[in-house]
Amino acid sequence: MDFSTLIGMLVGLSLVVGAIFIGGAVDVFINVPGMMIVIGGTLASICVAFPFEEVIQAMVAGFKAFSSRKVKVNEVVNIMVKVAEISRREGLIALENVQTENVVLRKSCQLIADNADPELIRATLRIEISAMKRRHKIAQDVYKRLAGLAPAFGMLGTLIGLVQMLSNLQEPASIGPAMAVAILTTFYGSLLATVLFIPIGAKLRARTLQEQLHLEIIFEGAKSILENNNPRLVYEKLSSFQAPKDRAGE
């Protein structure tokens, strides 16, 4: 669980809700027609803009931004050093039996066990990086579009409320509900964009850069093991990816 994402989201929502409670009545901020316009309209438009399977993929990616734990650079470096230790102790062929959930790491171990050319490993991981960035960009584009659609539908709801209000000025009782729709839809759209869609999109971009860095470490580690499977030398090379304070002996 990535607690920083969850805590940040909860704190942001809590501040907004807290301000509403302090200001007085809460029920005035609940308007079903306004929610229908903003939430329903935003979801409908995003399904028009993107294939449905890509929308579902983006929703799953957004959920993973909360549920998956951030893997640190130090952990990836240590894993590659352990791989080097296995290859040193048992030979390169032993890497065929390395068990890991990381598909790229498993593929790299197989290539090392096959004594593949470093250029083949480079080409393979470059393809993996490109494919990963392409998959992640879809989810990022969905949230970027959602962040633009929600305020737009909020403004649309505002216009609807204003039209209803202006067309019934002779009926004072109808002015209040119409004005509520006019104002609250803008509030709903801005809330969704600033508290949900924009932060999740930014988190996904950060995760893409993080995964790209991890793949680079795996590539350099695999190449180093093929060139010289001395775990100490492998670590010395991969430690360049670490912050100075995290390096052994510093």
Which structural category do the helix and sheet elements fall into? mainly alpha
Separate helix tally: 8
Q: What are the low-pLDDT stretches, counting only 5+ consecutive residues below 50?
A: none
Please give the largest β-sheet: none
The coarse silhouette is: elongated
Work out the count of structural domains.
1
The fraction of residues assigned to DSSP E strands is under 5%
H/E order of the elements? Answer: HHHHHHHH
Summarize the structure.
The protein has helices at 3-23, 32-49, 52-67, 73-90, 103-113, 118-166, 172-227, 231-238. By secondary structure, it is an all-alpha fold.
Task: Summarize the structure in words.
- By secondary structure, the protein is mainly α.
- The chain has one domain.
- Helices cover 79% and strands 0% of the residues.
- It contains eight helices and no strands.
- Helix 5 runs parallel beside helix 7 and helix 7 packs antiparallel against helix 8.
- It is elongated, with a radius of gyration of 26 Å.
- The model has no long low-confidence stretch (mean pLDDT 84).
